[in-house]
Amino acid sequence: MILKDNEKELISQEIENLERFSSAELVAVITQKSSDYKYASLIISIFLTFLFSFILYFLKEISTLELLQYQLLIFIGTNLFFIKFNNLTLKLLPLSYKHQKASLKANEQFYNLGLNKTKSKQAIMFFVSLDEKYVEIITDTEISKKIPNEFWEQLVYEFTLDIKKDDFLSGYLKAIKTSKAMLIQHFPIQNDDENELSNEVIELK
Q1: Which pLDDT score, from 0 to 100, does residue 92 have?
Q2: Pairwise CA distance, residues 114 & 30, whole Å
Q3: Which residue intervals define the domain TPM in the entry (predicted)?
Q4: What confidence score (pLDDT) does residue 199 get?
């Protein structure tokens, strides 16, 4: 469990408060990390195996068989090490790669959770991947038409700063409150409004 029950409740209540006055549908999604990064660990292990093999080749006279044995030991050892200490793998990876993985996860969830299938096309997803310090806000077509992307970009920027300061809960609540006035202005509640998506915080494993 990433969040405590009372933390989830606070976020859910804030979403309910928003949707009481707006026809927009906001979904909160959080994951600890967006990938297991096993492929990345494998690539790092291969790189280190060749690096150490290169060093051994010049520092020590060894046969081809011995070199292969060393390579096997180095590869298995480093791969097991990075699998066990996955957070170290994350620190070694480029930020752009981690954010790419997190963005793929976010877009995948937008469709998996059916946010693209609402009748009103007014769905919004706030996606947070904690280990990558990554925030993405994805909006459906009607939201995109009326609210400029710059608004969401600024919101993501401020939200990300809160994540980096380990102030996740305050950041999430602040992001919802900040978007509230804009959503009420452009998408006021309708008499026939239907709540199609859950207001509960969705935690991904």
Answers
A1: 80
A2: 16
A3: 105-178
A4: 93
Tokens of 184: 């009420």
The string of pLDDT tens digits covering residues 124-161 is: 999 999 999 999 999 999 999 999 999 999 999 999 99
Q: Name the fold adopted by 5-35+95-204.
A: Diaminopimelate Epimerase; Chain A, domain 1 (3.10.310)
Tell me the chain's radius of gyration from C-alpha atoms.
23
Question: Among positive and negative, which fits the CA dihedral 64, 70, 76, 79?
Answer: negative
126 backbone dihedrals φ, ψ, rounded to 5°: -95, 110
User: Pick the residue with more confidence: 48 or 14?
Assistant: 14
The answer to whether residues 134 and 204 touch, using CB atoms and an 8 Å cutoff, is no
Residues in the chain: 205
Q: Domain spans of the chain?
A: 5-35+95-204, 38-92
For residue 190 the two structure tokens come to: 């309708």
199 CB neighbour count, 10 Å cutoff: 18
Distance CA 140, CA 125 (A): 9
Whether 123 contacts 25, CB under 8 Å: yes
Contacts of 26 (CB under 8 A, 6+ apart): 15, 18, 19, 123, 124, 125, 126, 176, 179, 183, 199
Q: Name which residue leads in pLDDT, 22 or 91.
A: 22
Beta bridge partners of 202: 29
**Neighbouring C-beta atoms of residue 33, cutoff 10 Å:** 19
d(CA 186, CA 142): 10
Amino acid in the structure at residue 36: D
* Whole-number pLDDT of residue 49: 82
